[in-house]
Amino acid sequence: LDLSNCSLHSIPPGLAKATTAIVLDLTENPLTTLPDGSFLGFIHLQSLAVPLMLECPGGSDAWQDVTVDGSSRLCQGQRNPCNSSVELAWPCPENSVCAADGPGFVQCLCDSPFHGYKCLREGTFPMLLFGGILGTATVSLSLLLWGTQRRKAKTP
């Protein structure tokens, strides 16, 4: 994806949809910062060229090779922070596994059959029970309101 020399003053909002990009060039743009989360989900990104005054997203630890070439900085070989020997600041909870989510980002995915907050709930979400209670409450409230508000309706 070549966005070099496009007079970009900020990261375009549509870039978030290009998470399958492997190579991205942002050089020769008057970018001043890369907002946090700009490259969230870019797990396939292997080569990123940014203007010299910007750092590689996620820092130099998120990339295997960071080189300066003329007026640009080249970030190559995105590292998987889950395979790092450096301990994560927020390790994943029990019953979950670490997964890369872009340069410098990780996400914790619940192992099957666990789900919910901190992957503490086992099994599947009780859809039938949830739907039954919600449906019963909706019908009961509707009947109550129909019965109490019916007398206020004008008859022709």
Automatic annotation (TrEMBL):
UniProt key word Transmembrane: yes
TM spans (from-to): 125-146
Entry's Gene Ontology BP terms: positive regulation of osteoblast differentiation
Keywords: Membrane, Transmembrane, Transmembrane helix
Transmembrane is among the record's keywords: yes
EGF-like domain location: 108-119
Name of the protein: ARAID factor
Taxonomic source organism: Pomatostomus ruficeps (Chestnut-crowned babbler)
